[in-house]
Write a structure and sequence with these properties.
single chain, 6 helices, about 0% strand
Length: about 160
């Protein structure tokens, strides 16, 4: 049950961050993909740095913290910059898609770091079994969202049209 509470808690935090930042799903989804690539490239170094702090022991916990940090750093930084939704409905849909995509990327490291029992085994099993589909469709949807989003119009840029 604890694993399910952690999964829901992380999902709510991700949804709230995305919703209140008002950033478009495309930008945040591609930032998640960039974070995933960074976690593949730098995980050993980041895990060593996390373990060197002395706050967490070397092993599964430091591996999980390093993975989460590398994966979520790009989208968290982009919570403060980029194109934004203008409607509440867009924010809700974009935040939901971002949360599902992030949980798809986090499924494997979370299942290794948490003690799973009962319903949480089923929830993480479903998430892990469908992670590749979630990531593939999510990244394609993020690219599509970037394609349909309109670029910002700068007023007073000094250029005459």
């Amino acid at each position: 049950m604890t694993g399910l509470v952690v999964l829901v808690g992380i999902g709510l935090v991700l949804f709230a961050g995305s919703f209140f930042s008002k950033r478009r799903f495309g930008l945040l989804g591609l930032a998640l993909a960039a974070g995933y690539v960074l976690s593949l490239l730098w995980l050993d170094t980041a895990e060593f740095m996390v373990a060197m702090t002395g706050f967490v022991p070397t092993g599964v916990v430091s591996h999980f913290i390093a993975t989460v940090a590398l994966l979520l750093l790009p989208p968290v930084l982009l919570f403060f910059h980029g194109t934004a939704y203008k409607t509440v409905t867009g924010r809700i849909v974009g935040s939901f898609l971002f949360t599902v995509l992030a949980l798809g990327f986090l499924a494997e490291p979370m299942s290794k770091a948490l003690v799973l029992d009962g319903v949480s085994v089923q929830a993480f099993g479903w998430l892990k079994d469908n992670a590749e589909l979630i990531m593939g469709v999510g990244v394609m949807a993020a690219v599509f969202d970037m394609f349909i989003s309109k670029p910002a119009v700068f007023s007073g840029s000094g250029r005459k049209r």
